[in-house]
Write a structure and sequence with these properties.
This protein starts with a strand and ends with a helix. It is built from 1 helix and 5 strands, in the order E-E-E-E-E-H. A 5-stranded antiparallel beta sheet has the order 3-2-1-4-5. It has one domain (2-57): OB fold (Dihydrolipoamide Acetyltransferase, E2P) (Beta Barrel). Helices cover 5% and strands 52% of the residues. With 73 residues, the protein is mainly beta.
Length: 73
């Protein structure tokens, strides 16, 4: 597991999933249950920090997705 920084590239509220693009250009899938604040939604373009983990299908995905804007005071 490692920490990644990136931007939400797309998010489908109906399906509850999306992808984020890391600062290194990788695309990582995430599901709404992995949004850390429990809201189950996140805006496209939001700057995020997440944990890279191996998902159920053996591919890397993002978990514990935090919006950086939401954590600023």
């Amino acid at each position: 597991m490692s920490v990644v920084h990136g931007v939400v590239r797309d998010f489908d509220e109906h399906r509850g999933d999306g992808t984020l693009e890391t600062t290194t250009g990788e695309s990582l899938y995430f599901h709404c249950v992995n949004i850390a604040d429990g809201s189950r939604r996140i805006p496209v373009g939001a700057t995020v920090v997440a944990q890279r983990c191996v998902g159920l299908r053996g591919r890397d995905e993002a978990r514990a997705v935090y919006s950086v804007e939401a954590t600023r005071t």
